[in-house]
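Quick one, probably user error.
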């Protein structure tokens, strides 16, 4: 009976959690998320055998506590699917076709999928690259990063259920997936997995570890969780990683903050670095 009892959770607790998560990972939690936060974290409070949220917050006062990983994992929203906002993949295809397919390139095309969740977006990019180059080994390197370690482990495995493949065509299904009949799942083929390197990265980290630039960055459906200042500084950081003429893809509901002169809108939330 005690297991299902409500645990003490005050306005002050919510504010403390909102401030912890904002400072560490940039996610800005509005007051109306109070219940959602309770539901997302209650399991963590119990897993740590604590009897209220105040104790949990105290525990997070230790910046290097292992609970931090579970805490941020619990508070991220990870919805994604294959070929989400499909026009971006068409634009990417046209861009790569125009600049890299018919010329001799000495370096692989580098693409960063910067909030990759469970992997569908990064693998959609990889499939697009195989299609545009017309080979299962295109000269492409895809870096796929996310903050959440749980979604990254799903992404690395690359196993999906039939309903997750709704937007994948029959042809792509045969070309890019292995069918596992015994449990009715589809696994990304090794040659597609080989194009993607998954790594944990917090977009809020003052410094990122990459030291080369990218021909395209995908940062879709994550900036909506950040406030304007955070969005602005993130875009400034992306600008350093994009040479002139390269592309930045944002999510459909993401407005570009004002005073941005490093990017111009190409079309449909796709920007060119100027
Ligand atoms: C809604 S999903 C979007 C997934 C994919 N980009 C798409 O558009 O389908 C948002 C992702 O952003 C990640 N995220 C949130 N804050 C982050 C941060 N500070 N650094 C890196 N990733 C973050 C979450 O873990 C989550 O997987």
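Nope, works fine. Designed sequence:
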């Amino acid at each position: 009976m005690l297991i299902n009892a409500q645990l003490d959770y005050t306005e002050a607790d919510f504010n403390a959690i909102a401030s912890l998560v904002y400072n560490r990972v940039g996610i800005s939690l509005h007051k109306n998320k109070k219940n959602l936060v309770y539901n997302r974290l209650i399991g963590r409070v119990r897993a740590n055998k604590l009897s209220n949220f105040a104790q949990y917050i105290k525990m997070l006062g230790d910046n290097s506590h292992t609970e931090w990983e579970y805490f941020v994992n619990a508070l991220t929203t990870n919805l994604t699917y294959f070929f989400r906002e499909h026009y971006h993949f068409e634009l990417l295809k046209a861009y790569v076709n125009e600049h890299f397919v018919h010329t001799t390139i000495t370096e692989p095309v580098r693409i960063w999928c910067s909030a990759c969740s469970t992997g569908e977006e990064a693998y959609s990019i990889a499939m697009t690259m195989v299609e545009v180059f017309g080979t299962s080994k295109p000269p492409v390197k895809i870096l796929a990063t996310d903050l959440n370690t749980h979604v990254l482990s799903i992404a690395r495995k690359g196993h999906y259920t039939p309903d997750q493949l709704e937007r994948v065509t029959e042809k792509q299904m045969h070309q890019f997936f292995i069918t596992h009949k015994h449990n009715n799942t589809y696994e990304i083929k090794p040659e597609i997995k080989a194009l993607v390197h998954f790594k944990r990265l917090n977009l809020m980290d003052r410094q990122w570890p990459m030291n080369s630039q990218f021909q395209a960055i995908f940062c879709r459906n994550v900036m909506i969780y950040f406030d304007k200042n955070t969005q602005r500084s993130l875009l400034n950081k992306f600008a350093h990683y994009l040479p002139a003429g390269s592309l930045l893809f944002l999510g459909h509901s993401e407005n570009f903050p004002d005073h941005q002169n490093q990017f111009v809108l190409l079309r449909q939330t796709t920007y060119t670095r100027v």
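Strands lie at 109-113, 140-146, 159-160, 177-180, 185-188, 196-200, 216-219, 247-250, 263-267, 270-273.
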